[in-house]
Each structure stands twice: as C-alpha cells, then as structure tokens.
Amino acid sequence: MDPERLVLNPEQALNAICLDFRGYGPQPMLFCEVLRAIHGEAMVVRREPGSEGLWIAKPGSGKMRHLEGAELVAFMCDQVRGARLPPERLAVVSRQVFQTACRVVTDPATDAPAIAVDTGMATFACRQCGRCCRHLDYRDGITEADVARLRALDRQDILEWVGVAKGADGRNVYRIWVEPGTNRFAVPCPFLKRGPTADRWLCRIHAVKPEICRHYPVSRKHAAMTGCPGFDRR
C-alpha cells in the first residue's frame, strides 16, 4: 500500500465516498457542494441556520423536503451512486469529499480508468498521543485476513480479545476488542500502555496489530475529522 496515494476503481471510490459520509457525521456544506457537482442548478439545496440538515428539491420537483441525520446520509449515497458519474466528474466529487488532490489515472492492473487520491501522508508523524486507541470506534475493523494472520502466528493472547458473530450471510464477523468470556467491548484498547512520559502511549502489539490500526489515519482529512494531531507542527 502506497501511503501517499490510493488508486481506487470507480466502485471503490464510491464506497470510500459513502464511508466518508457515514463516518464523520453531518457535513452539510460538503453535501451542498457535492449535490451541485452532480446536478448543477437542477437540484435546489438550502441550508437551514442552526441545523445540520438540508432542504432539498429534486430535479423536476418544486417541493422542498428536509433531510437530516442518517436519512440525509442515505440520500447522499443514493445520489452519488445513482448519478453514474464519468471518471472525470467522479474525480471532482472525490476531491470535494476527501479534501485533497484526486485525478483520473489508468489502473495498471485492468487498464481501466481509476481515481488516484493523494493522501497527504508524507508529512504525517505519529505523536503517540493514544487518542486513536482510546477514543475511536473500530469494533468492526478487524478483517478475516487479520484473524488468519494472528492464528498463523499463534497469538492466542490477542485472539482471545476478538469476538465472533454470524453475519446475515452466515459468514463469521469479527469484532474488537471484546473482554474474554463476555460480550463487553474493552475501552480503551487493552493493548495500549503508558509510554515513557505521561502524554505518550505505546502499542503492546505494534508488530502484529490489525491493518485498520496500522493504516490509521489514511489521509489528512481522516486525521482532522478524528482528532489526530499527526499533521500538527510541533
């Protein structure tokens, strides 16, 4: 994985956009920009002062409808997916959403158009503040590949903190971190320990930690929206 650039096929880009919409709570100003990029002046969008929702009239309809919360997020995902944006316009929307340079490239694996997203990670430096391990919710973040890797390493000391449930499709769904013998999630991460000073924290399983932990944050916006100070100048 190139830490400074992500290359996403159109479906991956759409998934990442919707993940952004769902992950950061209301972003009404961004949603207005995205709707204008998709529909131009055909869709009427109004912000209501003091509200995190939007008044929206779909193209061809003069009736305004107020949307907020999960309903607004679902609407935005439907709009982005339903627009069937060509690569150049998808790059524009990606640029708005991820707040970084995005451009159309050719995916070397498929020779098909893809979206290259600059992550801005070149200037990132972990401050070992422990904020991500103490406050963020990654309960569904561990993957089957992570679990397989830990099993191959015989890390039962870690696996005992991994919960297992059945998904709607009957496949195993793994969750972290669950107190052994219970259904209670551990807060904060049980593998976090104090560093040499009061403001520093260290990971006791750094060499084998799940990929979601290893790749946090994935971009400058991700850091800003989740309180990570890794881009702050000392």
TrEMBL record:
Highest taxon of source: Bacteria
InterPro entries with a match to the protein in the record: Puta_zinc/iron-chelating_dom
Protein name, UniProt field: YkgJ family cysteine cluster protein
